[in-house]
Structure formats: C-alpha cells, structure tokens
C-alpha cells in the first residue's frame, strides 16, 4: 500500500506538469510564430521598444492591483470547496467590484506619471503621449486578472486553457498586420488591442458562468479587506520584481541603446519564458497540495522533494537539447540580427537548472501563510538581480547580463534553502541530491561543448550527453512512477475495448 501511494504521488505530479505544460507549449508555438513576424518586421529596435513599454505598464499594474489576481483565488476556492453558492456569488461580485476600482486606479496612475515614465525609461523625453495611450493596458489587465482569478478559483482549467490559446491566436492575427502596414507606429495600438482581446475573452467565459454583478457600497467593499491584506505581500513582491526588470531594461537603453534591450529581451524570452511552460503546474496544482499539507512535516517535505525531482527530470533533457540547437532556434524564432543574444541565452539555460530546484522551495512560505518571509526572499532576489545584471553588463556586455541573471539565481537558491532549512525544517532527500548532481553536471558539460569551436565537441559529445540526460530521466521516471506499466495497461484496455466493438 505504501508503494502505491509513493507511485501515485509521482504520477500525479507528472500528469499535471504534462497537462499544463502541454497547454503552455501550444501557446509558446503560436507565440513563436508571432515573435518571428515581429522580429522580421520591426527588428531589434522595435522588439526593444515593445519590451520597455510592456515592463513599464506591468510595473504600474503590479503597483495598483492590490494582489487581487492571486489573493482572490484563495477566497473563491474556499467557497467552491465548501459548496457555499451564496457566499461564492457574493465573493465573485466582491472581486469584480474591487477589480473595477483597481482598474480605474491603474488607469489614472499611468496617466499622471506618464511624464516621469517617459523621462526615466528612455534617454530622450518624448514618450509621454505614448504612456498616456497605454494606460488602458493597465486597467484592462486588472479586469482580466479578476476574471482569471474567478476561473481559477472554481477550477475551470479547461476554460482557462481555451482562453489562453485564443488570446495568443488573437494577438497573432490582429497585431501582425498592423506591424506590417504601420511598423513601429503600430506598437502602442497593438499592445492596447492585445489587452482588450484578453479581457473580452476572459470576461465572456466567466460571465457566462456567473453573471456580472458589482456593488460599490462601503459595507460591501469592506468585506474585501481580507483579500487586500493578503495580497499586499504579492503586490510588494510584484513591484520589486517589475521594478528590477524596469531598472535593468532602462539601464541597458540609457547606457547602450535600444538594440541592447532587444537582445536582452530575446535571450530572456527564449529561455526564462519558453522553458517556463514546465513550471506552469506550480500555481495550479503544486501550491494547493503543498498548502493542504503545511502542518504535516514529513508529508510536506515529501511533496516538495518529489516536485523538485520530477520537475528536474522533465526539464533537464529539454535544456540540453535547447543548448545544442540554440543558434538555429535564435535565427528561427527571431532572425540573424539577434545572434548577439546567443551568449546570454546559453548562460540563462544553466540558470534554469537552478530555478527548477529553487522554485518549489520558494512556495513554502506562501503555503505556510508566511507572507513576510516570502517578501523578504523575493526582495533579496530582486536586489541581487538588478545589481548583478548591471555589473555583469558593464564588464562583459550582453553575455555579462546573462551571467548576472545566473549569479542572482544561485545566490537566491542559497538564501531560500538556508532559510527553509532553519525556519521551516525543510530537508532535501538523497534522491533529490543525486538527481540534481547528475543532471546539473550533464548540463554544464553540454554548455562547455556548445561554447567550443571544435565541431566534434559541439555536435558529437554534446549530442551524446543530450541522449544520456534523456536516458537518465526516463529510467528514473519509469522506476518511480511505474510509467511504462501504466502506458502498457492503457494500451491493453484500448485494444480490448476496440476488439469488443
């Protein structure tokens, strides 16, 4: 019986990583096509401009949404689990009322601070009007965040997947023609259009399930203070994260040029964002399971260690292949003009190994309800990130910026693990240590091979190491999940049903 539980735990993690990672992968494929068109039509300068506008509006949004997109999920989910329909309807109306208020606040903040945003984002002060026109992006994102929180809380995962796919498709179909005909002049309108599409698609699904109702009476709004307080840590962490990103991109733009921002953004997108599809199960599956076991020390440690192990086993072979074919992917995803970003992207791939080990542990403070610890750890990471990227870029250019991101990840890894060990009693299992040692070593040697000028090292030894990484992951997953037996059993059942028909 114990063995079955052990196997089911690993299978459960594998199933949900595959499910949400698959949906994210489809979005990435559609996004790749769009990014390719954008890179060809606008070039590094246009990509850098989009990056600066997005990071700035995200900073304003994170500063004014009171953390509702995250904190509201918990309230709605509790009502849904208790099957309290009356309370659920009330809380949904409460979320929508507060979302409208935060949307208005974000709109006004973007307009009021547009001169400052223009002055400190760009080396020349000529984008105030652009930021005023981008203010609807902030308000639309706040409204979308509230509706997405509702769908997450009531476990409409299939609807969430559909919305995300249609949203990316809409961005492809609607914005690429604008860039083709109007070039850089279409950047601001296209960003507003994309935000509008996401809000409309999300609201159509959520309002079909729960009709739109709001109230701005003071006693009613006062019931939402619990969500606002809970979201404060998320808001502050979001401000720090967006602020660090804002500082980095503004520094690159002012010290170098807009093309440097484009290279940084391209390398960041290819690694941090695209590989993030493997981490997509964290918020939807892993976090609720971890929260439910927060008072059971052994089970709690077991859940964290299994999540680290399965995540690392899945992502490691993908990262080795990514390293091997990164030059071709850079040209395919963007264009030959973006090859200067290659060295930074290669270093960032190594940082993904560290992130796979660190991220499950970072959820421990949230699962324990320790918002102060979460904010402390996030603050340390954001400060290290901004400082190390700037120092790295000053010393070694774009490659140095990637080295700065990787170094910040390593420092954060040390902070998080030491804090979790002494504050929560978290202990790594020997299985996690073995898995990390093997896969990290393989990844590092692949990195050295692809950086070499020798053809046989780059294509011979590196390709062999990719195969070794895949074999190691498959063998461990097979032994711990009974994956092969499950697949054979399902094939037999399908064959028997087909024979009966």
Automatic annotation (TrEMBL):
Q: Where in the cell is it found?
A: Cell membrane
| Transmembrane regions | 93-117, 129-151, 163-182, 188-210, 230-251, 263-282, 303-326, 338-354, 374-393, 399-420, 432-450, 456-477
Q: How does it sit in the membrane?
A: Multi-pass membrane protein
List the keywords (alphabetical). Answer: Cell membrane, Membrane, Transmembrane, Transmembrane helix
Report the GO terms under cellular component.
Answer: plasma membrane
Look up keyword Transmembrane helix and say if it applies.
Answer: yes
Q: Looking at the record's lineage, which domain of life comes first? A: Bacteria
Q: InterPro entries from the entry?
A: Poly_Biosynth_Transport, Polysacc_synth
Q: Which Pfam families match?
A: Polysacc_synt
This one is known as: Polysaccharide biosynthesis protein
Q: Which organism is it from?
A: Prevotella multiformis DSM 16608
Q: What is the lineage of its organism?
A: Bacteria, Pseudomonadati, Bacteroidota, Bacteroidia, Bacteroidales
């Amino acid at each position: 019986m114990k063995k079955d539980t052990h196997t089911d735990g690993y299978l459960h993690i594998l199933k949900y990583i595959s499910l949400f990672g698959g949906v994210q992968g489809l979005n990435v494929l559609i996004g790749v096509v769009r990014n390719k068109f954008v890179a060809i039509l606008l070039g590094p300068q246009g990509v850098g401009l989009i990056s600066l506008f997005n990071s700035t509006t995200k900073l304003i949004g994170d500063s004014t949404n009171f953390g509702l997109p995250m904190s509201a999920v918990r309230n709605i989910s509790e009502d849904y689990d208790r099957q309290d329909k009356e309370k659920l309807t009330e809380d949904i109306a409460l979320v929508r009322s507060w979302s409208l208020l935060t949307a208005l606040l974000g709109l006004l903040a973007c307009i009021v601070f547009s001169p400052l945003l223009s002055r400190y984002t760009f080396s020349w002060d000529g984008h105030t009007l652009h930021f005023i026109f981008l203010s609807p992006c902030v308000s639309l994102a706040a409204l979308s965040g509230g509706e997405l929180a509702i769908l997450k809380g009531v476990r409409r995962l299939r609807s969430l997947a559909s919305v995300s796919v249609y949203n990316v498709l809409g961005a492809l179909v609607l914005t690429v023609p604008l860039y083709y005909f109007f070039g850089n002049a279409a950047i601001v309108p296209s960003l507003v259009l994309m935000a509008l599409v996401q809000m409309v698609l999300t609201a159509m699904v959520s309002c079909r399930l729960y009709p739109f109702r709001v109230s701005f009476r003071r006693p009613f709004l006062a019931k939402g203070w619990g969500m606002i307080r809970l979201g404060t840590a998320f808001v502050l962490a979001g401000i720090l994260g967006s602020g660090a990103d804002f500082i980095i991109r503004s520094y690159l733009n002012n010290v170098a040029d807009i093309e440097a921002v484009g290279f940084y953004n391209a390398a960041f997108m290819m690694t941090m964002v695209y590989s993030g599809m493997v981490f997509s199960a964290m918020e939807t599956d892993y976090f609720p399971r971890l929260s439910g076991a927060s008072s059971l020390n052994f089970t709690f440690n077991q859940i964290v260690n299994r999540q680290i192990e399965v995540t690392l086993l899945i992502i490691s072979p993908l990262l080795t292949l990514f390293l091997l074919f990164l030059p071709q992917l850079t040209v395919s995803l963007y264009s030959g003009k973006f090859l200067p970003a290659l060295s930074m992207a290669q270093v960032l791939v190594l940082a993904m190994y560290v992130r796979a080990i660190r991220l499950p542990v970072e959820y421990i403070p949230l699962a324990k309800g320790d918002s102060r610890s979460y904010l402390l750890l996030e603050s340390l990471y954001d400060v290290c990130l901004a400082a190390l990227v700037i120092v790295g870029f000053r010393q070694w250019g774009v490659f140095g910026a990637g080295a700065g991101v990787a170094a910040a990840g390593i420092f954060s890894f040390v902070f998080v693990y030491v804090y979790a060990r002494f504050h929560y009693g978290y202990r790594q299992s020997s299985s996690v240590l073995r898995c990390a040692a093997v896969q990290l070593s393989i990844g590092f040697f692949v990195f050295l091979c692809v950086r070499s000028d020798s053809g046989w090292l780059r294509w011979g030894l590196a390709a062999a190491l990719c195969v070794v990484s895949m074999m190691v992951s498959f063998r461990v997953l097979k032994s711990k999940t009974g994956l092969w037996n499950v697949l054979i059993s399902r094939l037999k059942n399908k064959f028997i049903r087909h024979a009966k028909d």
